[in-house]
Amino acid sequence: MFLLGVIILRENARQRINLVVSAMLFFGGLGSIIGALGLLASLSGPDFEETFASRDFFQNLAYIWEFFFPALLLFATVFPTERAIAKRFRGYTLLVFVPHVFHFLLLVGLGWFMPTLTNSSLSVPSLVQPVVQVLGWLATIFLGIHQALFSLVNLVYVGATAFFLLANYRDTTEPRIRQQIRVIGLGLFVCLVLYSGATLVPTLFGIQLELWLSTLMTSTALLACSGAITYSIVRHKFLDTKLFARQAIVYAISSALLVGFYLAVVVQLNRFFTQVTGLDSEVIEPVLLILALILFQPAVSRLGETLEHLFLRDPADYRNILKQLGRETLTTIDLDLLLARSIRTIGDALTLKSAYIVALAREAPLMHVGRGDHIPEPLVAQLPEIINRLPSTAQSFRISEMAPIDERDRDFLRSVFDARLVIALRTKGETVGALILGPKVAGTEYTSEDVSLLTTLADQLSVSLQNGLLLRDRVAVARFEEELNLARQIQRSFLPSSFPDVDGIDIHGTSIPSKEVGGDLYDVVPLENDCFLIAIGDVSGKGVPAALLSSMLQASLRTQAGSVKSVSEIMKNINNLVYKSTRLEQFATFFIALINCESMEISFSNAGHNFPILIRSNGDVVELSQGGLILGIMEGVTFEEHSIKLESGDRAIFFTDGISEALNEEDEEFGEERLNTLVSTLPKDAEAQEVTEELLADLYGFLGDREAQDDVTLMVLKVMEKARNVNPSPILDRV
């Protein structure tokens, strides 16, 4: 017991639970040692008694073992968590020992003076001798009563310990801690029965036991309790004892068993061969010793392996669990499964109050909770900066005042995550995440063995985590590309696939997004009486959000085309819709025109879009420069509407800034002047589609190897023949 107490104390002398258990074993073991010396004193005659004062005093000193009981009660009130009674009273630890301190001092004091008071041959004056005898009788009576009553005090301590252990067993949900309490509780029950039989029952009922029997029962009671603690340490990792210490205990037990076996067998064989052969025992003993060394060596190895297999290679041991987890992580590619399984296993294996794992994904940190409270997203979002600030010189960090991390980061981790240990997950110089581990349920600290195992696991976990993040990114990119492709197909289905066959008008258009889906749109909406609407627009931004807004513009245009009086009114309604339905940073430019094929007149309204170009048959260039505010900036805006006559041979070009502002490799702009010049040089009999293709071919030739940075949308309208003069009328009258 004494040596076991030393091992536990050396594990962590600063940890309260280690101090309590060590004290419990020290007192029990020391009392047994002193009691054995007292027994030797009683068997060694007067010479030994003269050397060590008196026999009674020496035996009373052995009562130091009874400090085992307050230490045991203190243990029950602080393991696995501190009970309310221990928290409420500041001096609780000292108060528990007060009765036993008084009891021990009384026994030692009386043991010192009792021989003097009860010695009838003591030379004292005759007048004082009766007083001395009375005092001796009173001291003897008081000592007997005190010993009887104090046995009840020890019994109360044991009962209170059993009560608190049962309460702890009921309150805790951790399987390993419940096993520890169950084993220690069984040892305590055996201790209580044997102690009652050795001390309490004889004292209360006046039964006189043989000294050897009383000593044997008391020592066995202490051995049962300390044996239960030993088994709990070795088998269930009580107090988070390191593997080296647990192996030392196992090997000490195996050595003790073999020594006992040797003494029991070899001594008997020596006696047997001495009687049979008549040879001197000094001749036989060396032969038997050599045979024992030859035969016992395999037995020692075999016994050590058996005990190690029984106690140290348990599949449920947390070291084996973490090693198995390390092997499993190498074959797990699902990121969420990897994170959830890893942190849950770590939290369960180490019996932690809280355990979190964070993966530094590209878009946002991914956190899984193995144990503990849910952490709000805004707090989780702060983790990447904190994790990336961890010093690269180390991988594990104890969250204490001495931790080599920023004080604000340390306070954040302690207050939000109740962190005690942080292990960075790094691979190939890149930080991919972190383990954030809270306190253990039993209140013990992380041992160097814990940190070493977790660091090894973190190395394996980092590789799997990086692979999972890469796979997640690839899957996300593939899914995004698939969604964009689908969105592109949907968007292209909204754009005109054919153009109206109107006598005297040739029209063609196309839109090439700079990404899978873009924010440019164009449309041709046929109406009755040889009229149709054309529209072209450019939505701010790119990708899906811009495509959604452009689809909304197109849908609104088609909804109003057959019922609204004028293009300016259509523009006003679309502006109000965009203003109410989009965010402040979203807006669009838009151009709408009504083409009257009878009167050959175009009525248009412009909301901040690029001015269309009208190239007359004689080569003159007319810019439709009337415009208004872009869509979505202000509600209730009134837009102007203007008209212009079309003549045979005229060509109108409608385009977005993806053409006019396109830049080549030398950062030169394509420009509207180049566009005008190019259209003017094309053959006058070229159809609208041919003009469109020529313009796009020239544009991409201008760009060279440089990709277009914006959507490219182009519409060409050509007047094929001269139309009759007819007064224009509102759209509603024509539909």
UniProtKB/TrEMBL annotation:
Keywords: Hydrolase, Membrane, Transmembrane, Transmembrane helix. The keyword Hydrolase applies. PROSITE patterns: PPM_2 (PS51746). Coiled coil: none annotated. Residues 504-719 form the PPM-type phosphatase domain. GO terms for molecular function: phosphatase activity. The keyword Nucleus does not apply. Pfam families: GAF, SpoIIE. This is SpoIIE family protein phosphatase.
